[in-house]
Amino acid sequence: MSLHWASPMVLFLLPIIVLPWFTRSQEKTVVWSKFVPVDPLSNFIGATLKFLASLAMACLILALAKPYLPEQTVERIGEGSEVVVLVDRSRSMDDAFAIKGQLLMASVGKKDSKRRVAKKYLLEFVDKRPDDRFGFVLFSDKAVDILPLTYNKESIRATINANALGKGLSETNISRALITAAEMFDGQTYRGSRIVLLVSDGGRELSDEAKQKIAEIYQRENVSLYWLYMRSVTGMTLDEATGDNRRWTDTPERKLHTFFKSISVPYRA
Q: Residue 50 and residue 191: Cα distance in Å, rounded?
C-alpha cells in the first residue's frame, strides 16, 4: 500500500527547508576572539530553533501536497450470525413467568418475572454465540434501537442487564418494533444469517398496512424471525391443539403467530 499525492509538484519546494541554516550572522567583529566566551547553551538553542523552523516548513509543504491512501478492498471472512434482540418492555413482562406444574402468582419485578427470566436466557444465549454480532432494540409504545450491531459482548451483556432494571410501561407497539429491528440491517453488508429474536409475552392486532410493511422489509432484508414467547398462562401454546381452552382460540398471541408463519421468511417460536 503506497502513499499518493494530490499535488505532487508542491514537493519540489522541499529544498527551501535549508534556508534557516543560511541566515545572516548577527555576530559582531571583535579585535580579539578570546574576549568572547564560549556559550554552548546558546549554540544548542540556536541550532534547535533552526531545526524546528526547517521541520515546520517541511510539514507545511507536505500538507500542501495533500498525501492520501488510495481506496482499497479489505477481504473479511464472516462467521456466525447477525442477531437483533427485540425485547418487550411493557408492564406485563413484570408478571410471573408461567412454568408448567407451578401455580401462577403475581410477582411484579421479582426474580421469577418474565423480564428476569428472559435476561437469564439471553445472557446464556450471548455467551454461547461468540462469533455472532448482536444488536438490541427495546419497545413498548415506541421502539428504541439501544445498541447497533456489534461484536462487543460486554456491551450487549450490559444492555441485557440494564433491561432487567426498573418497571415496564403500559403500552405495546409491536408493529413499529418489528420494523425498527429489521431496519437495523438496512445498508449493512450481507455477512450471512440475519435474525430478529423477539422476546415478548403477548401479541397485538396489526393493521393490514403494518402487516404488508413488515412482510416487505423482512423479505427484502432476508431476515429470519424467532419468537421467544414468555407465556403468562400455564398450558397455553401458540398453535391450536385439541382440548384448548375456548378463551385461547382468538388471542392476539395466536393471531400474531399465524401472521408470522404467513410472511414467507424462516420463522420459529
A: 55
pLDDT, greater one: 205 or 185? 185
Handedness of CA 18, 21, 23, 24 (dihedral sign): negative
- Of 44, 43, 48, 41, nearest in space to 20 by CA: 48
Instruction: List the domain boundaries for the chain.
Output: 4-68, 82-262
Per-residue model confidence as pLDDT tens digits over 6-36:
888 988 888 888 888 886 655 566 556 666 6
The region, left, alpha or beta by phi > 0 then psi within -120 to 50, assigned to residue 141 is alpha
Measured at the alpha carbon of residue 223, what is the angle toward residues 149 and 250, in degrees to the nearest 5? 115
Give yes or no for a contact between 181 and 196, defined as CB atoms under 8 angstroms apart: yes
For residues 105 and 113, what is the distance between their CA atoms, to the nearest angstrom? 10
Question: How many residues are listed for the chain in this entry?
Answer: 269
Evaluate whether 83 touches 132 at the Cβ level (below 8 Å).
yes
Q: Are 64 and 56 in contact (CB under 8 A)?
A: no
Task: Give yes or no for a contact between 96 and 112, defined as CB atoms under 8 angstroms apart.
Answer: yes
Question: Could you say which DSSP state residue 22 is in?
Answer: G
CB within 8 Å of 117: residues ≥ 6 apart: 97, 230
Q: Does domain 82-262 have CATH number 3.40.50.410?
A: yes
